[in-house]
Amino acid sequence: MRQAEIKRNTNETKIELTLDLDGVGKSKIATGCGFLDHMLTLFARHGRFDLDVSCKGDTWVDYHHTAEDVGICLGKAFAEALGEKRGIVRYGSMTLPMDETLVVAAVDLSGRAYLGYALDIPCEKVGDFDTELVKEFFFAFVRAAECTLHVRQLAGENSHHIIEGAFKAFGRAMKQAVAIDKDFADEIPSTKGAL
After folding, report:
1. Strand extents, DSSP E, 47-144
2. Given 105, 124, 160, 184, which is the most exposed site by the fewest CB atoms within 10 A?
3. Distance CA 33, CA 130 (A)
4. CA of 64: how far to CAs of 17, 32, 38, 114, in Å?
5. Helix count (H) and strand count (E) of the chain?
6. Which residues partner with 56 through β-bridges?
7. DSSP string spanning 78-89?
8. Are strands 101-108 and 114-118 parallel, antiparallel or unpaired?
9. Residues 105-129: pLDDT tens digits?
10. Are 19 and 3 in contact (CB under 8 A)?
11. For 82-113, how does the pLDDT look when each residue is reduced to its tens digit (9 = 90+)?
């Protein structure tokens, strides 16, 4: 069973998160930030992950701690659910169109944390969500998951579409990367013998 349950309690956030890599894309998301809930719901659906997230954060300050800490917890959940990563494809990528927007996400579950981020989001806010927090979320995720993730915008003008395209592409790239390669189901996908 490739599942994980993560709990994080700090003075800024209290988070409970469960993840099933082999799910059907159902989710129950309540972070206190409607836009982040929407993005995580899309991520779970397009990745076919079952994901439940409950976060009680200091949203009266802003959404920074919530976005960052949810990213940390999601990354930890992937790391825990994957274990030693035996049998996984390891790499995944998706070029995703959404109306005028085109976004690429590419991931390597390498054991090395790196974020290549190239989204040019024209608005500072979508609703009450600070768009700079998209980068904070992805940066927190890659550090906790210990993976390489590139998210690159090739076209786009609408801030909502750019961010939504990024999360959908991220979900689909992760789906590919965590999939079991039946030809190598008992092998770690690295010449080093460890990831």
Report:
1. 50-57, 91-98, 101-108, 114-118, 125-126, 129-130
2. 124
3. 11
4. 18, 12, 16, 20
5. 4, 10
6. 14
7. HHHHHTT-TTB-
8. unpaired
9. 999 999 999 999 999 999 999 999 9
10. yes
11. 999 999 999 999 999 999 999 999 999 999 99
- β-bridge mates for residue 106, sequence order: 93, 150
The single-letter code of the amino acid at 115 is L
Torsions phi, psi for 138 (to 5 deg) = -65, -40
Chain CA centroid to CA 43, Å: 7
| Contacts for 108 with CB less than 8 Å, ≥ 6 apart | 90, 91, 147, 148, 177
Write 128-132 long-range contacts (CB < 8 A, 24+). Answer: 128/33, 128/35, 128/63, 129/33, 129/34, 129/35, 129/36, 129/63, 130/62, 130/63, 130/64, 131/159, 131/163
- The Cα–Cα gap between 88 and 147 comes to 14
Q: What size, in residues, is the chain?
A: 195
